[in-house]
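[Q] Does anyone have a clean structure-token version of this?
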Amino acid sequence: MLNLSTLQTYLTQLLSPTDTIHTALLLTPEGAIVSFASLGSAASGSGSSQRQRSKDEIWILAGLSAEVWAETRSEDGVEKGMGMAESELGRIVVVPVDDASPESQDEREPLLLLAVNGGAEADWKTMCAKAKKLGAYLAPSVNKHRGAIEASPLNRTPAKSRTRSTTTSPGRVLR
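[A] Here you go.
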């Protein structure tokens, strides 16, 4: 069963000052935050301190992560079913919390996304591996509720990707 305290514990386990991964978010494809964890302690031995992100920064990161997912998840050069970008907030990796194969992920939108945010020196491979591992672990618990969520009266919009067209998109995300 999914509960917020357990989700926060899982997200906290992704954080690592040695890998410079400082924030993890569980969010909807539209950018609504379900849970998050942020590293707030001083980095020992490095001389630089990391402060915990403010709620405003978390909301900005959530919106940016949703856009990264929408804009980069199927581009050439990026692993299929994953969004990646560099921004002023650091490196961002976004993966679906879905147990479907990457081919069938094109047919349906995931219920939740997992975003991992690290510093400019964070290793892409480490970020991707950690995000994919937790996403795969959470997927069965999330997807067993897919039918009920999709049938909900609150979910009356057609299941389609929120990817913008090139005419409405403000520009490309820097990588």
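[Q] Thanks! Anything notable?
[A] The helical segments are 4-14, 55-72, 102-105, 124-143, 146-151.
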